[in-house]
Amino acid sequence: LQISGYLNLLANTIDNFTHGLAVAASFLVSRKVGFLTTVAILLHEIPHEVGDFAILLRAGFDRWSAAKMQLSTALGGILGACFAICAQSPKGAGETVVWILPFSSGGFLYIALVNVVPDLLEEKNPWNSLQQILLLCTGIIVMVLLALT
């Protein structure tokens, strides 16, 4: 088995840990924020996990082993959620949310921008760049509208 498969599993576990932090902290804010965060992460995770599964297959894992390893990385999300809940201050959830949500949001923004900006800079077709920027702005507008409702 190639080392890339194991590195991908480690990265996926850390990614799922931050997702667990974000979901738990969001539910500490309110049910609405918690459900919105959960849906957003699920929409992100479906293609992400399919891609990770393909990486594991190319790294030499058989289908059953790759599926089991992918499932085991989901425990990182459970650990992240448990950590967020256990990190609650006796003063209330506000103390926890103050640092967890900015930490996880910053991580998501960093990863998104590290993946998107280099592609935009390398894109030769201005129409494709404009489409990507418009879709990015559409996503931001959707988030703002959901926050206002």
Helix-strand layout with pairing:
Layout: H1 3-29, H2 31-58, H3 63-73, H4 75-86, H5 93-122, H6 126-148
Helix pairs in contact: 1-2, 1-3, 1-4, 1-5, 2-3
Structural commentary:
With 149 residues, the protein is mainly alpha-helical. The protein has one domain. It contains six helices and no strands. The model has no long low-confidence stretch (mean pLDDT 84).
Identify the notable features of this structure and list them briefly.
6 helices, 88% helix, 149 residues, mainly alpha, single chain, zinc transport
Give a nutshell description of this structure:
It is found in: Membrane. By secondary structure, the chain is an all-alpha fold.
The number of domains: 1
Provide the β-strand percentage band: under 5%
Low-confidence stretches: none
* Beta strand count: 0
Oligomer: single chain
Largest sheet: none
Q: Which class of secondary structure composition applies to the elements?
A: mainly alpha
- Ends distance: 49 Å
Helix content: over 70%
Average residue-wise pLDDT: 84
> What would you call the shape?
flat
Q: What is the helix/strand order?
A: HHHHHH
Radius of gyration: 17 Å
The number of helices is: 6
